[in-house]
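Regression report. Comparing outputs from two consecutive submissions.

Submission 1:
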Amino acid sequence: MKGKRGPLKVGFIALGCPKNIVDSEKMLGEIAEAGFLITGEAEDADVIVVNTCGFIEPAKVEAIEAIKEAVEYKHNFGVKKVIVAGCLPQRLGKELFKEVDGIDAIVGLGERDEISQIIEKTFNEEQQEAYLGHFFKLVHDDTSRLLITPSHSVYLRISEGCDHKCSFCTIPAIRGKFRSKPLQNIIAEASELVNAGAVEINLIAQDTAYYGKEMKMKNGLVKLLEELEKIDGLKWIRLLYLYPVGFNEHFIETVAKSEKIVHYFDIPIQHVNNQILKAMRRPDTKEKLYKLIEDLRAAMPDSVLRTTVIVGFPGETDEQFDELIEFLKWVRFDALGAFKYYAESGTEAAQMPNQISEKIKEVRLEELMLSQQQIAFAQNKERIGKKLICLVDSIEGRGKGRGRFYGQGPEIDSICLIKKCKAKIGEFINTRVVKTQDYDLIVEQI
């Protein structure tokens, strides 16, 4: 590793969802512990590692572009090797070498924790190498991460993989069956993060509501939340990716009475029409979704709701799309992510008849997002004059800060622009909403 030229310099490009961010942070921790120098300037690196996403076409395109850019650094600067890690190698295998010329090594999810050894070996060898061992039974230890998120607000992964069989999704093929991380491991990791300054922990999984079910653990998520609540210094616990089918009365009651679990529910419904849900192989129904929203709002009137939906699924009619729009207007989700359907290779839905044209998908996506924009802007205006507790995420000078109230998840949602901010990053402050700026709130510190 060391010689006349000193430690290797590693450039790292992190792509993808929060689960991928955790993988990137773990790899960066391994790289730093091995004595390599991590550089923020990719062209200054000896080796570039690109940790990729690849579960839908746009993510794959983004990853391929990032890999090609890294390869260009080999041609135009002093970069010697390019290593590609994460979901795209796991999905494409050795075919990735053909997809982009100039990759020196590909690293599957199972070899994540051996990244420093792979970097050293790749740097010293000439031939291409694929590290694609068995991952599907592995449950990673995510301690000793080098955080790339702010230290006061962090992600905590509670499981690997997914047991749902959605007809449009590649995740089970990439990450395998659902495996819950042992409860004691999660608590140890959470304690480590809080000791390092975290006041907000965002729980992530492919479906956080499914935690412990494959181990026949009754109310596994509730048990986990009760243990997390005991950690001194932890103020906010946020749940991301809660599939609707996982809600029950005990869980709702637990969140409602908690002083640490924020009343923020990220519920990916994908659609509401029963025929489309059945074709998607989703266990939900329109009737159950309506009842779930009513139950949440009855138990917690201050609930903030986020969802994701798919437009243009094979066979979706105008009437079925209108049914989705009607539901969204009834719920008035605070935040929403919408995606055009992509026919992903290897999925059941890609073989279905009545695929929808790109033009129709575009029209439906635009209509849906314009409808949601009106809802979001109206809800923001309703918050003018209200008091909110905000977590300060950054300070920009001249008394300006950026933060979030409990109803805004990190990275994915709107923010609070703080006027007359006298607090430090990672502190909670009392604010009042004075006006809005598109999706964001403008608040003053009280």
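Submission 2:
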Amino acid sequence: MKNFYDSVRSERQLKSLTGLGKSKFEELLPALSPALVEITNEKYRRNRTIRSLKQEEVEKANFQHHKLFFILFYLKEYPTYEVLGFTFDLNPSFASENVKKLLPVLRRAQSNLNTLPKRILQTSLELEETLEAVEAITLTPHSPLPDTTTETCQKSKNSSKVVKTKPIVFIDVTERDHFRHQDNSKQRKHYSGKRKRHTVKNTIVSDSKRRILFLGRTKPYRQHDYKMFKKEFSKKVDWFSKVNVCVDLGYQGIKKDYSSAQNIKIPHKKPRKSKKNPKPSLTRKQKAENQQIASKRVVVEHAIFGMKAFHILTNKFRNRSKNLVDEVIFQVAGLWNLKILS
């Protein structure tokens, strides 16, 4: 395998090829060798081999720059295995084999660094624990969230008040192109109707710092956004008692179905046209509230846009390996969280 890392000329070039700058690349690299050792030892135990890696083998398992460059380049550019093999001077079958070997190591390293989002939340306490690392949002009195419970703090020297609000999360769905299945039933499930595309999608929950807190399982397009959300967040749990949440119009009915409706912000829907109301429109106040919610909710759009800098999420997904379509977005979400950590 060719070592292209030493040939990189600048920070900008490294970002364009791997999606990470040099500082984040060097931060991720030391976590990969221990992850490789852990996975190898687990394979021994799974195969009932009573041994672990010796010191000499641990040293050989040292994860080098060019291997990390290889797997990040695959996620960032998403070439075919033929192109990937040609680029790194490998047989296409070896290129495919290396991808399958390195992805689990990258996932374990990200898990050890705590950059991966949650996949399952069963209680509101788990959601609160996920938000513990997020600092409380402080806004000036002139820009509070609508209907948000606030607590006024002591005045500072310049007589301006600092208003503390509850942590806020943003919920949305991201959609990705997927290959067309040969099976008719699978085709119908994935058909989106948008330019004859076949797609999959995931629920995304982010915070005000654009970090991905929760990533739902990959589902076919035909499942409605709100239906996916109800399966992932039980209506029996009071999720939003201690947090504010912003959603879009795809989540109609969320205030009726979930507790703490006062903490749920959803835009006003334009009324239907009828004989009594031939020219339906929103009031100025409703339009202003919609604009304010949209200005806050754009954070989750930025998070999704940042994830899609990795082209494996934007190009049509071609791989047919089981669960790989879900695995790649999970790992890219972890890379995005690592990228924006201060």
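Expected: both submissions complete independently.
Actual: both completed, but the second showed a warning that disappeared on reload.
Relevant detail on submission 2: The chain has two domains: 5-112, 124-340.
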